[in-house]
């Protein structure tokens, strides 16, 4: 079956950005919910104000932008704070992504769209898509990659543990690409997936 509306998910540091880039190269229009979140939480935006009201001015940098490390230390260490963050951001992200889909469809009715949603399964958004693609890797690989990004071990583990385990995400997805090895191996898996998407 030919696929034109795809959900992309996976754990933190699993490789969603890499797969997004491969999708773009293959001709897909990619909507990145993390990028939307950054836009919606820019200084002065309505969602930015909601976060400041909820978590206080201590989450801000000198230029009034949100210090994501400070905010992360709050929400990844407390399930209630994480729930508050999601309640304040998810509806606005969903609204923006739907608008982007509509705008793209007007310009390109037959184009292929992929939406990268880190918490796709946690938010029960499977029904939005024709198929869901999960990119996964081992816990050890996630941890190593996050440590390489400069996080402390405790911070990294809290971020991984705040999401569903990869096995649970994979169980609810239609396709799993495994990203524990080289980029070349991931690209080979993606090529097989892309060919299957074109099949009718």
TrEMBL record:
Classification via PROSITE patterns: DPCK
Localisation per UniProt entry: Cytoplasm
InterPro entries: Depp_CoAkinase (IPR001977), P-loop_NTPase (IPR027417)
Entry's Gene Ontology molecular function annotations: ATP binding; dephospho-CoA kinase activity
EC number(s) from the headed UniProt entry: 2.7.1.24
Keywords, alphabetical: ATP-binding, Coenzyme A biosynthesis, Cytoplasm, Kinase, Nucleotide-binding, Transferase
Superkingdom, taxonomy of origin: Bacteria
Record pathway: Cofactor biosynthesis; coenzyme A biosynthesis; CoA from (R)-pantothenate: step 5/5
Gene Ontology biological-process entries: coenzyme A biosynthetic process
Function: Catalyzes the phosphorylation of the 3'-hydroxyl group of dephosphocoenzyme A to form coenzyme A.
NCBIfam families: dephospho-CoA kinase
Protein name, per record: Dephospho-CoA kinase
Organism: Methylacidimicrobium tartarophylax
Gene coding for it: coaE
């Amino acid at each position: 079956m030919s696929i034109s509306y795809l959900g992309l998910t996976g754990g933190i540091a699993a490789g969603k950005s890499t797969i997004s880039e491969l999708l773009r190269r293959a001709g897909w229009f990619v909507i990145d919910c993390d990028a939307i979140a950054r836009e919606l939480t820019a200084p002065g935006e309505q969602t930015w104000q909601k976060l400041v009201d909820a978590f206080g001015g201590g989450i801000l940098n000198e230029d009034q932008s949100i210090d994501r490390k400070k905010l992360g230390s709050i929400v990844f260490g407390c399930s209630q704070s994480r729930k508050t963050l999601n309640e304040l951001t998810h509806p606005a992200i969903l609204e923006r992504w739907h608008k982007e889909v509509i705008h793209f469809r007007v310009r390109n009715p037959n184009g292929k769209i992929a939406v990268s949603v880190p918490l796709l399964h946690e938010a029960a958004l499977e029904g939005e898509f024709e198929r869901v693609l999960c990119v996964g890797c081992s816990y050890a690989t996630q941890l190593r990659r996050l440590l390489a990004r400069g996080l402390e071990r405790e911070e990294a583990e809290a971020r991984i543990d705040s999401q569903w385990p990869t096995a649970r995400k994979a169980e609810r997805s239609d396709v799993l690409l495994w990203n524990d090895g080289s980029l070349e191996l991931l690209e080979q898996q993606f090529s097989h997936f892309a060919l299957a998407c074109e099949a009718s």
